[in-house]
Fold these 2 entries.
Entry 1:
Amino acid sequence: MMRGVRDSSALPALVDLALKNPTGFGYAIAFGELAVGLGTLLGLFARVAALGGALISLSLWLTVSWQVQPYYLGNDLAYLMSWLPLLLAGASMLSLDRLLAVRRRIR
C-alpha cells in the first residue's frame, strides 16, 4: 500500500522513510496512537496529546489520503480539524490536568 501511494502523496520523502524501516515505523505509529488515546481519555497532558493526534492525522492526510478525490472524502482531514479545539482549549473540568492544577494551586 505504501509503495502504491508514494508517487501520489504530498510528502513522498515521508513515505520513503516508512518504507526503509516499516517495522519501526509501525511501532512508532502504534505507540503514538495509544499515547494520544490514553492522554485524551484521561485528560492527562491533553494539549500534548491533541498535538500528537493532529500530527498523526496530518501525516496520514499528506501521505495516504492525499490522492482521495474529492478531498473531503478523506477522513484524515476531518480528524485533523477535530483535534484543533482540544489543542487550543485544553482539557475540560473533568480531567486529570484540571485535578493536578487544583492540587498545585492549593500548595
Note: The chain has a mean pLDDT of 91.
Entry 2:
Amino acid sequence: MKKILFFAMTIVVLLSSCANEFNQVYKSSDVYYKYEYAKECFANGKYQRVVTLLEPLILTMKGTDNAQECLYMLGMAQYSMGDYEAASMTFRKYHTSYPKGTFAEMASFYTGESLYQGTPEPRLDQTTTVSAIGAFQEYLDLYPDAQLKRKAQTRLYALQDKLVKKELLSAQLYYNLGTYFGNCMTGGSNYEACIITAQNALKDYPYTSMREDFALLIMKSKFELAEQSVEEKRIDRYRDAEDECYGFINEYPESKKRQLAEKYIASCKKHTAGAEDDD
C-alpha cells in the first residue's frame, strides 16, 4: 500500500514539475528558448503544448532562419491533434508564404490531407470534400513526381466516391418520395427528379463503381413514372421505360436485378401492345 501511495505521489510531483516548467517557458520572453522547447515537445508528442507555444511565435519568427520550420511544425501539431480545419489553413499559409520552401511539397500534400480527414459523411454538405479534391489536384499539378503521388491519387478516388454517394443518396431519396407531391414545388415529379439526378451523376462521373445503382434507379423511376402518368402520356412513357429496361439488361446482363427489368418489360408490352396495333 505504501509503495502504491509513494508511486502516486511521485507521479503527481513529476506532473506538477512538468507543468511548472511549461509555464516558465510560456511566460519567457526568450523567443528561441520557446521555439527549442516547442521542438522538444513535438518530438515527445505533446502537440497541444506545441500549438500553445508556436501560435504566438509565427509573426515573431517571420523573416528568421526558423520561420519555415516553425510554421510547418505548427501545422503538423494541429494535424496530429485532429484539428484538421486549423491544420489545413496553416499548411495553406505555409505554401503561400514559401512556395519553394523546404517543406513546400509536404505542406501542399497536408493541405489536402487535412481537408480529407475533416470531410463529413456523404449525407451532409460536401463543401470540404470539394475543397480537398481541389487541394490534392493542385498538389499533383505542382508536383507531378511527388513522393506521395499514389496516396494523393487514392485520396482523390475516395473523395470522388463520396460526392457520387451523395448524388446516389439524393436520387434514392427522390425515388423513395415517389408520389409525394409536397416535394414537387415546381409541378414536376419525384420520379423525374430522380431520373435527372441520376443521369447527371452518370455524366459527371462516367467511371463510377456505382454506375449500376444509378441505372437501376433510372429504370425503376421511368417505369413508376409510366404507371402514374395521365392517359395521353402513358403509352410514350411505357415505351421509354421498356427501352430503358432493355438498355439496363444489355449493359448489366449478369445483374441481380435482371429479373426485375424483364418483369417491367413484360408489363410495358401489355400496355403498349394495343397502341402498336393502332399504329
Note: The radius of gyration is 30 Å.
